Amino acid sequence: MTRIQEVLQKDDPERIAKLSQIASEIRVDIVNTIAAAKMGHIGGDFSVTDILVSLFFGVMNYRSQDPNWAERDRFILSKGHCSAALYSVMAKAGYFKHEQLGEFMKPLSFLGGHPNRRKLAGIEANTGPLGHGLPIGVGCAVGASLAKKSYRTFVALGDGELQEGSNWEAAMFAGHRKLGNLMAIVDRNRLQQGAGTEETNSLDPLADKWRAFGWDTYELDGHNFAELLNVMEAPDTGKPKVIIANTIKGKGVSFIENRVEWHHKVPSAEQNIQAIKELTHS
Amino acid sequence: MTSLSQQETFDCRQIFAQTLTELARQDERIVIVCNDSVGSSNLNEFKKEFPDRLVNVGIAEQNMIGVAAGLANSGFIPFVSCAGPFLSGRALEQVKADVAYNMYPIILCAQSPGMSYGELGPTHHSIEDFSWIRALTDITLLSPADPKQTKDAIHWAVQANKPVYMRINRFKIPKTTPETASFEVGKALLLKEGKDVTLITTGILVPRALEAAAILEKDGISARVLNMHTLNPIDKEAIIAAASETRGIVTMEEAITTGGLGAAISEVVVENHPTKMRILGVSHFAPTGSASFLLDHFGLNVENIVKSASELVG
């Protein structure tokens, strides 16, 4: 297991502060979006936010005004139910206008409960059913190497969804093909819809599992930008990389953090105000 | 004229592999994704010529479809080659979400479809694919009858830029498609004119329909024969014409009849020009037997087609 140490010194504090500020704004957008729609998956949105911010505002090459640019890095949100987080990040990245977040889950909206590439350019894969993102990401990575292109592929996975066998089919193949251009990031918040992952169908020792499938494995704090960037920007080792990002479901709002019911609970108007207060004053 | 049953017979796997190899020489976007089925899909020659462009994921069909979707995302045209039951059954959710809902230009090639694995039994039969894939309306569903149609279907699919599912027949049958016939997706191929009854079929049953029509002719019943090589989109015009110009329709398919070809045709008939129909096909999990035995067992033999047509319009 590679534990990232002393990375803070290596990274630019200004850059980290900027990402933290963006993440705070994204979480405000998420809670407003979900409160307005009265639907969404706020707990997992908040746990994956810092991972998405690191990728979209720190690591990935893309052109939001030319979303099908052939050389773009690919990002797939396998835990597609956390679409509010992805949409909020994409709006800030310029894929569409910020005020359009208000269309989240409205009838005929291009911002459905799960992402849809046929409605929103920049979405690489229509996810929702769990266990689909990694196989598609493996295909993107194989495609890049076949086409001799230098783009990378990133897949964000929920931890609960690793109970789906298709992930391990893909993990095995990525290890076999030594896909150094592929990175999986597991949002390890330790909660799934109804209970903890370990009491439902335990995943630990999770890093050992990935390592056994031929992946370079990194376990770190999924809310620490310096640690995230350090691994995400590390050079190709000739093996696929996985970050097991230890996160807090509902990160950033005291009454949402680590509570299983907030998988898809919707904040009331008062809770919305309270959440924004906490997010903007912390 | 030589009876069809006396003519040389072909399976379609060889032309499938040969056509893909030829196309791959001209189009670098063509890749094949398969599940340990290099030999059974006849792909050794392709692999020899394009080792990098044959992506064998091993025995992992869910991953196979996802990988194909990722390759399509990267600008490739993936042909997924896999035994029918494991392509449409094992990976059905991936076919729905990764292929159809994503609208990626992936060509799903169901090898050895229907009951062609005979004695291996229902686990290895792919009789449900017409029903399942027809429900995914973004996928063009093709069932070529012979080597010529298989080749034409592949050529069409490469330029279609949308999801396609096609059966690649293993069961040997004679050629039935005239050399001059064009392959028009969504247009049934008229193989014989007739005014009393219409026989509509697809895939390996086309020769049996033609033989039945010849026998019916001797009995004084003029039978029209349509090769419905495209199940989605279905040729409504040809169906309505059959319903209005002849006195009944007999359909036959090497597939479960719940939701298959006969059902697709019925939907058009009842809404546009109700007429009498007989739907011949597979009714249940098959007992043990060879592919040929099983076709006969389920009444997909010439005698039963003749009988059904005679009863319908007699």
UniProtKB/TrEMBL annotation, chain A:
Which Gene3D superfamilies is this protein grouped with? 3.40.50.970
Q: Report the Pfam families cross-referenced here.
A: Transketolase_N
Decide whether keyword Ribonucleoprotein is in the record.
Answer: no
Q: Which residues form the Transketolase N-terminal domain?
A: 21-278
Q: Which cofactor does it need?
A: thiamine diphosphate
What keywords sit in the KW lines? Answer: Thiamine pyrophosphate
**Which family does the UniProt entry place this protein in?**
Belongs to the transketolase family.
What name has this protein been given in UniProt? N-terminal subunit (TktA1)
Automatic annotation (TrEMBL), chain B:
Which terms are listed as keywords in the entry?
Thiamine pyrophosphate
- Which Pfam family, giving just one, matches this sequence? Transketolase_C
The cross-references to InterPro entries, in alphabetical order and at most eight, read: PDH/Transketolase, THDP-binding, Transketo_C/PFOR_II, Transketolase-like_Pyr-bd, Transketolase_C
| Listed cofactors | thiamine diphosphate
Keyword field contains Cytoplasm = no
Q: Which SUPFAM superfamilies match?
A: Thiamin diphosphate-binding fold (THDP-binding), TK C-terminal domain-like
Give residue ranges for domain Transketolase-like pyrimidine-binding: 10-175
**Protein family membership:** Belongs to the transketolase family.
This chain belongs to the protein called C-terminal subunit (TktA2)
